[in-house]
Amino acid sequence: MKRLLLILATLITLCGSSASAQTPEKNRNRKENTGAAVINTLKDRIRLMGYAQAGYTRDDADNVEDNFDIKRIIFMAEGQITDDWLLYFMYNFNSGGTLLEMYTDYRILPGLSARLGQFKVPYTIENTLSPTVVELIDCYSQATNYLAAVGPHDPLRGSTTGRDLGFILFGNLLNDRLTYNAGFFNGQGINNKDKNSNKEFVGSLIVNPTKWLSVGGSITTGKGNAIALSDANPDIRTGDNYSRDRWAAGAVVKTKPVSLRTEYLGGKDGNVKSNGYYATASIHVCPNLDIIASYDYLNKNKALGLKQTNYVAGIQYWFYPRCRVQAQYTHSDKDPDSSNMIQAQVQVRF
C-alpha cells in the first residue's frame, strides 16, 4: 500500500512537472491574468481619499491669537466588500492623530440600510456635512458646535467632532424625496466607552420636495455623563448623569445664483435651556467664485443670557474641483465685549 501511494505521488509530481515544462507560457499567462484580476477587483472595490486644510487666523478676543495653523489632515478609505456591504475608515493626522470614523454599512432592502460603528451623529443638517463643503472657515455655526459637541464648546460633553459610537437604520424613500435616520449611541463621543447605562436616541427626517429645496428636523434625547464643569450649567458636577435633549429644524436652498442653509436649534441639559440659529448664504458670482455671508446666534443659558452673535463675510475661490481658497472676516458680539477675527484658508482634496 505504501509503495502504491509512493508511485502515485511520483506520477502526479512528474505529470505536474511535465505540464509545467511543456506549457510555461500558459502558466505565466494564467498567473498574469490572475494578478490583473486581483488588481482590477481591488481598484473597483477600494477607494482612497483625503484632504487638508491650512491657513491663518488673527483674533483680537481676550487672548489675541495670531497664528498660521493646520486644521485638518484627513485620510479616508472605503471598501466595497460586496454590492450590499461596505466598510469605511477616516483618520485625522493633525494634532497627534485621531480615529474619526470606523463603521460598516449593510443594505438590507432598497431604502433600508444599517450602520454600526463610529460616525457622524445625524443631529442637525449642518453636523452631517463635510468640512470640505461648509462655507465657514470655523466650519460650523456656534449652535452646531455647542449642541452637537463638534468642538470643546460644551465642557460637560467635551469635543466629540460631532461623532459617536452607535447603530442606526437609514435610507432614502419615495425616489429620494424622503431621507431618514434613527438609532442609538453611547452618548460619550468618539473613542470612548459609555460612562452610564443609558443610550442616546437620535432621529432625523429630511423631505426633498424639489431638487433645490430640502426641509426637515432632528432630535436627540438621553442621559449624559459630565466629564467637566460648565459655567453655563453650574448645577451639574463632574461625573454626574444628567438628562440631555436636543432638537433642530431647518432648510437648505440650492439654486444657481444663491445657496442658503438655515436652522434653529434648541437644547436642555438638566434644567438649563439653550438655543441658537444661523443662516449662511453663498452667492455664486461666477462658476468658481462665491461671496459668503452668515448670521450666527447662540445662547448657552437662556436664564442667564449667555449669548453671542457672529456676523461673517468673505469670499471663496474654487481653483480646482473640491479645492478652494477662502478669506473671511468675523465680528462677534458677546456681552459686554465684542471682537474681530480675520481668517484665510487653503483646502486641497483628492
Molecular structure report:
By secondary structure, the chain is mainly β. The chain has one domain: Beta Barrel (Porin). The protein has 3 helices and 16 strands. A 16-stranded antiparallel beta barrel has the order 1-2-3-4-5-6-7-8-9-10-11-12-13-14-15-16. The longest helix is centred in the N-terminal third of the chain and has 22 residues. The protein is globular and about 70 Å long.
Number of H- or I-type helical stretches:
3
* CATH topology assignment: Porin
Q: What proportion strand?
A: over 45%
Distance between the termini: 65 Å
Query: Compute the gyration radius: what is it?
Result: 26 Å
CATH superfamily: Porin
The main β sheet shows up as:
16 strands, antiparallel, barrel
Average per-residue pLDDT, rounded, comes to: 90
Helix content: 10-25%
Q: Write the CATH architecture name.
A: Beta Barrel
> Could you list the spans in which at least 5 consecutive residues all have pLDDT below 50?
1-22
Shape: globular
Number of domains: 1
Strand pairing plus helix content: what structural class?
mainly beta
Q: In which order are the strands of the major sheet placed?
A: 1-2-3-4-5-6-7-8-9-10-11-12-13-14-15-16
H and E string? HHEEEEEHEEEEEEEEEEE
- Find the count of extended strands (DSSP E, 2+ residues): 16
The CATH class label is: Mainly Beta
